[in-house]
DUF6966 domain-containing protein (Sulfuriroseicoccus oceanibius), 97 residues
Amino acid sequence: MSESKTVEATLMRLIHLLEKAKEDNWVIYFGNALERLQQGNTEKAKQVIRRAYGGMCSFNDLGLNFITDKEYEEVLKLRNELWELSKPTSLIKKIFG
């Protein structure tokens, strides 16, 4: 699976869980990243994703209600995956894989 398809699948699952948790602001925020990704602007989508992780009241500080413990654990896993996936791809990695 390509990097952008992996990011897209991760975002879609995360958005689904955030909708279930009634986290409308985060649904809109990550929906914006998903839209940019689907328009082919992978690097801009990654920038949007990374911005969610810094500062007070960031995505790292999120506590969720209205979902099961198993779903909450999945959100934590997806959060970590998205952080790793959103890191800038170095030119060397692009060239040499």
Remarks:
- The chain is about 70% helix and 0% strand.
